[in-house]
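Input.
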Amino acid sequence: MSGVQLPPGLRWEPLQRSHPRRQFECGQPEVDDWIRRNAWQHQKKHLSVTKVLLDEHGRIAGYYTLTMGQVDFSELPAELARQLPRRRLPVAVLAWLGVSAAQQGQGLGQLLLAQTLRDCYEAGDTFAFVAVILDCLSDAAKAFYQKWDFEELPGHPYRLFVSYRQLEAMMRRE
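Output.
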């Protein structure tokens, strides 16, 4: 997979049944439970796509899950919704992102998010969407995403977005 440059010993793979999902632990029970119990089933049903970052021993160092969704134009900030149709609009959804507790503090969260945004950007050539959205589980997660120019959706302090135009600008800066 092209995209974000990884440190030696790490590699990207689409989630497979054989990956050691049950051993993944990041310290957030919801994030751990998702990959252990739901990610594979949702991927088989083509509801979402999960990509894992594997270490040199084949352990999951981190993962992210993407899916598509919709938001009503009225949920978007006025400056984004201004020139959009007054209806439900397509969005890319970063549903889950987690870094193994054993790998935290090494910048892998940034690598995972950078690859997530790269995947969304590249998908934008095939599937149109107006923004990437996500829901934060904590203030720390919210602060992390806001460093990447994610902003709150009006009235939803833990639902963040970055517009497709912002995403495009990010990719041009690379």
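The mean pLDDT is 94.
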